[in-house]
What we know:
This protein has 20 helices and no strands. The radius of gyration is 22 Å and the shape is globular. Helix 2 (34-73) packs across helix 8. The chain has a single domain, classed as Sodium:dicarboxylate symporter (Proton glutamate symport protein, Orthogonal Bundle). The chain has helices spanning 8-30, 34-73, 78-110, 133-138, 145-151, 154-170, 172-198, 200-214, 224-250, 254-260, 262-271, 274-288, 293-306, 309-325, 332-348, 355-366, 374-377, 381-406, 412-416, 423-433. The longest helix has 40 residues, at 34-73. Aspartic acid (ASP) binds next to helix 12, helix 16 and helix 18.
Amino acid sequence: MAKPEPNHLTRQIVIAMLAGIVLGVSLNQLGTASWIQLFVIDGVLQVVGSVFVAALKMMVVPLVFVSLVVGVTALSDLKALGRIGIKALSLYLATTAIAVIIALTLAGMVGPGEGFDAGSTAASFSGKEAPPLTQVLINLMPTNPVSAMAEGNMLQIIVFALLFGMAVTMSGARGKHVLNFFSDLDVVIMHMVEWIMRLAPYGVFALITRTFATQGLDLLLPLAAYFLTLTVALAIQLFGTYPLLLRLLGSLNPLTFLKKMRDPAAFAFSTASSGATIPVTLHTVEHKMGVKNSIAAFTVPMGATINMDGTAMMQGVATVFIANVYGIDLSMTDYLLVVLTATLASVGTAAVPGVGLVTLTMVLGQVGLPVEGIALIIGVDRLLDMMRTTVNVTGDCAISCIVAKSEHALDQSVFNDPDAGSTESDTRHSILTSPSP
Ligand code: ASP
């Protein structure tokens, strides 16, 4: 494979994404011959896109586990771990609450759904019960780490990796052997992630073209007010809240941060899954933004699992939209309940496509709105899912940088270097700096 120039790959990914949007929308608008549908859209594009997402997902569990074990052993003491955990958790919850408040304020001003004809959509939706909080807490502890890994249960994997990493640190010389092995394994796994990243332009192109070719944009028109309100809310969070927090809490340049977000943003947008994007998020946060592995290995998978600001925003705007459609007035208490439940629902939302709509049932239930209302917005959800996942992932990266900065674990020279983290130089660096056997 030819050596990519720094940022060459990022440019290719962005071009692939734009080309996919143009081609997909054109295919959708022009109408496709049945052979194009069969062999191109449901054939080549589906295979390439699905294999690409599967390859990304393949790396998530080994990467998170190994990287977290190595990360924990690099921490000076258990107190540091607790401090980082509390900082990350508080910031994740706070940014989600801010996100819902922005979404509700904007939706309150625009009033999406007023005068909407609910008869114009035929889709249906039935909700699912949310597990009680006690069960959520019990479920944090894996009964079997192998099955936690097999199921990709991120929080259980994090708990096991933290305990395992602590035990490695406390096991003296024997632990050191294990650590050396894990450090080497970490480098090997990162190599595999870099292979997948080099294939990203093809994967992203296939995913985006297929989505836009199959998603009728005509559905957008009746829901334009809902769609646009949410889009603006997401943009405020992306270009307002995060930059402000980076500047105020981390004294970091928001423009540099946003430029470095291009890779994970493109992956998040095309896969609509923060979970599948974890390998790229982790790579970016560590190698492009200069966050030490001991912080990133913890905050990134944790964020991907519990921090979903974009999802919570969708739930805020959707609640106001559905209330307006059904002509139900929301009181101030209802609004507060929405902030609280949407924040908690985002913690319980799995990092895969479309789950935000399922946990929306919790929010609607809290304020007594009909769950069937979700059927009204299903048609445009895929596109919004792509956008909100991009915001979810950006939030994870921003908080990781802020926590790292406060722990003096962010290498400012890497953060400021526009070419940091290009895959080739990175691999050499990680191999050179890994402990020898
Ligand atoms: N797709 C989102 C994510 O993976 C979750 C959702 O909002 O459905 O972050």
